[in-house]
Amino acid sequence: MKFARLSAILTLSLISSIGCRTIVVSSWVPSDTSQAFAQVRVLLSEASSEESFKSTGTIEVWDANDLVIKKAYEFLSMDPTLIKAPIKITSNAGYLEYKGGKYRGHIEIKPSNGKILILNIVNIETYLMSVVPSEVPASWPEEALKAQAVCARTYVVREMIAKRKAPYDVDTTTNTQVYRGMAKENQKTNQAVEDTQGLILLYNGSPIQSFFHSNSGGVTEDPLNVWGNKVEYLTSVRSDYDKEGDNYAWEEKMDQAQINSALASLGVGEVQDLIVVNRFASSRVNEIDVIGSATTKRIKATEFRKLLGATKLKSTRFGIRRESDGKFFVKGLGSGHGVGLSQWGSYAMAKENFDYKEILNHYYKGVSFARMAQN
To answer: What is this structure's pTM?
Structure first.
């Protein structure tokens, strides 16, 4: 997520009842009131020469002038690569099925920089009804679900601001937030979205970068140590509640061939050893020496994790040694980059009767709550 600055106008404070709790929030109105935040542009895929869409009702294709240029019943097949201007696909059933996924809102097919993009244009609250249970289990305590809803809403608003001139706001993957359409919607998470409707987190009047991750391993990380950017409200904090998470502690073994293959791009030859050089205050590794048959190279642990893969090296809070059998043994804590809200920490805090506001204030320091003004 890029660091975008946005001045905002905080208007009259109001009392808002959220579920059974009452908090003081403000109304957030962006300084550029021409930008609408009602709908999110989600990239589903790049178009091929043959695409199909399904629904249980009448499907209509609209041109750039909002004229219906084609109608179909339940099934539409087309070659999007032939279009020269954006078109919109709608269904009176309220959803469209594309590549096995069902999506509310409508589909937009849009030429952009030599590519044809397929987007889902969907109401922001409806979007969150899929994102929240895609990011955390719907069976979690309701206060953890509310915390995730506020995080996810703030995150997408920040992305919409940063990508206003881009062809889309978010995709469906962990590059932004996981979004799986109607298939993931759940009554519990729908309620969490409804109970926090419109609420976002602000710092100095602007929506924050509400980073989150699976499990901090006991302490969150300063983004300066991950991405090189200092963010005032994202300081490192203790997160002892993370111990309840299934991914709090982990171990991995990798053989010589796996290590050589993963680190081949470093050009050190056959890897002889891997030595942790130094750590941050959070105990996460800062730098590691890759000792090879040809040369030794010192790299950042974040780069080392990218090379090995996040499934092998779940976090940079780890230790590593070479065993007598030649394999490399890794033992670590936590899962993810470690910045911002720990989802498993939020889960355990909710079980201990912390409300969602207390959870969010623990992970994001000095922030305030605001309700998005209606467009």
So the answer is: 0.87
